[in-house]
Fold this sequence. Notes:
Blueprint: H1 13-21, E1 26-31, E2 37-41, H2 47-51, E3 56-59, E4 63-66, E5 69-72, E6 85-88, E7 96-99, H3 115-129
Amino acid sequence: MNTKVxxxxxxxxxxAYRLIGEGVDVLAHVRKKENLWQWEDAKHLPACDIxxxxxxxxxxxxxxxxxxxxxPAPADDKDYxxxxxxxxxxxxxxxxGYVVLDITDELPRYWWKSEEEIKQVVSAxxxxxxxxxx
Length: 134
């Protein structure tokens, strides 16, 4: 599988169709009742709707479960492009921090691409282990 597409970015219907064929989870932004929009699995849509760009498409975000709480999965090392990263850090008041690595620094095993993602992880950990530090 060659999925070099960023989870958060929109992709074309042609790209969505190809990725669905490769077994990649793709979401389509579809309208429900009363103009409510939500992301749903695109593999159940007719091929003509996908190929004609009938919807906005994106990759399904990768998640992990912390005691039944779904949170964003840590980023893959291949996603690192020498920018700052977000890491868990129990020494910080927020229990996470933003780090810009030097070229000689080793990439941590667990890191996230955005503050929004790591906030969800910290919130889940607080629910599991108790206590709020906000």
